[in-house]
């Protein structure tokens, strides 16, 4: 059972979008994240650096063939923090009585 | 009762954003449209070469097959922009995948042996061609099905 724990760092809308993507993946390409959340290169780099400094994200710079590729992945601490944050959000919604689309089975 | 830092409405909006991002992740197929027919075609080429029983043809086809499959796989790998967590497949995903593989193998082997019994020429090649059609039709379905299962698992917090 995931312990609900609100996380101010993750809750910022842009970082929440980034972490949501990474939570469903083992790793994601920098360009894919940028296109999905609609940020510029520099804005995304800044957000990823913030998450990396917090220990939530690991960034890997490598090559695919001769092309450089930067990928990001959630660290175990990041996954735990995200799961706790989502649990906290759900608790807030449930306590208020607002209906939210049911989770798929 | 609401958390001091966030209202229930904004919490619901945040959860909707989480869901939207994860929907986006599984919206597009990770495989190009030509993946399934190309894989099937490579098998047909190899099968036809083997059934020709000509050594030179078999040798050339084996090389073409290896290069073809390597090219197909590497193209998909290089195109890959993210890797979904394998555990999102779950038991249902594993069973779906296994079922698809078994069904295509059964189709190929069953057709091949049945045609062989009739004495028709190139039975395995014909069977492979049928499997190629099945892969072309069924492969995209399999991909969508697995993506749906993974999306549901991600949204359920697995």
Q: Into which percent range does the helicity of residues of chain B fall?
A: over 70%
SSE pattern of chain B, N- to C-terminal: HHHEHH
User: Which segments of chain A are poorly predicted (pLDDT under 50) over 5 or more consecutive residues?
Assistant: none
Biggest sheet character of chain A: 3 strands, antiparallel
| Termini Cα gap of chain A | 16 Å
What does the oligomeric state look like here? heterodimer
Mean pLDDT of chain A: 90
Could you tell me the radius of gyration of chain B in angstroms? Answer: 22 Å
Please describe the structure with a list of short key phrases separated by commas or semicolons.
heterodimer; A: 105 residues; alpha+beta; 5 helices; B: 158 residues; mainly alpha; 78% helix
Structural commentary:
The complex is a heterodimer of chains A (about 100) and B (about 160). By secondary structure, chain A is an alpha+beta fold. Chain A is about 55% helix and about 20% strand. Chain A is built from 5 helices and 3 strands; from the N terminus they run H-H-E-H-H-E-E-H. Chain A has helices at about 10, 15-25, 30-35, 40-55, 75-95; strands at about 25-30, 55-65, 65-75. Chain A has a 3-stranded antiparallel beta sheet with strand order 1-3-2. In chain A, strand 2 (about 55-65) and strand 3 (about 65-75) form a beta hairpin. Chain A is elongated and about 55 Å long. In chain B, helix 2 packs antiparallel against helix 3, helix 2 (about 35-50) runs antiparallel to helix 5 and helix 4 (about 90-120) packs antiparallel against helix 5. Helices cover about 80% and strands about 0% of the residues of chain B. The two termini of chain B are about 30 Å apart. Chain B contains 5 helices and 1 strand. Chain B has helices at about 10-25, 35-50, 55-80, 90-120, 125-155, and one strand at about 80-85. The model of chain B has no long low-confidence stretch (mean pLDDT about 90). Chain B has about 160 residues and is mainly α. The longest helix of chain B is centred in the C-terminal third of the chain and has 33 residues, at about 125-155. The interface of A and B includes residues 26 and 88 of A. Strand 1 of chain A pairs antiparallel with strand 1 of chain B.
